[in-house]
Design a protein that fits this description.
Length: 291
Amino acid sequence: MCSDLVIKATGVKKRYEDNYALDGIDIEVNSGQILGFIGPNGAGKSTFLQSVLGLINTEGNLEVLGLDPRKDRHKLLKEVCSITDVAVLPKWMTVDQVLNYVDGVHPGFDLKKCLAILSRTNIKRSSKIKTLSRGMVVQLHLSIVMSIDAKLLVLDEPTLGLDLVYRKEFYSQLIEDYYDGDKTILISTHQVEEIEGVLSNAIFMNQGRIVMQDSIESINKKFLELRPTQDSIERAKSLRPIHSRMELGREVFLYEDTEQDKLSEIGEVRPPIIADLFMAIMEKTRKGSET
């Protein structure tokens, strides 16, 4: 396996009774990518991330850092860290006790780095976990994870339930204090608009399948949104947009593989935001399955 290849999934499936949570997933993730898994509830995002962490059995072939996540989970956990929406820390412990425990059991943990990160927060080392707010617990968990020299970080809805300030601080801290260009980060979240600025790649999922996967750079070249002038709407329609929507009383068209110069002649052109593109692709996929 190529040394730059962090994850290789081929035909990965997971079935629960009569439904496939994962239905033939093919993914290759390279070192240094920040990959966003985007999709509605039940799309299979969390199921795939759980399989990467070796928490569930799947059909097909899955390698993470050259290891089988289920058979070699004890080896894998030396190189992988994770935060999920159900992540918990012992509520009876103080912050200092948690840090000392992690320092004692994890050889890759850097206590000095963790303390430096925590010094920029309002978290007191003498406080018990049970007295911390949900946002502070997530901050503490992130500080611990960022202080472990791991090759892969898995974030499954890490900021669920946090207010806007904490969510922004979370991703800002992640990029500033953890990401170094070589580490790989997988993120699953409903707050798509908050992560698209940090993503290098995106995967759209629905009903256990991948609908689209590409780099953000390629997506921005391939897809364009047009806000035509009022007298150019019919011409905009003639250029065969793949989707249209109303925005503040104005029609917005989405194009795939259409020359930007043609669009610029009749209105304002920009790459779509990921959330809008996802909704358009979902609608296009649904219509395609109905025909």
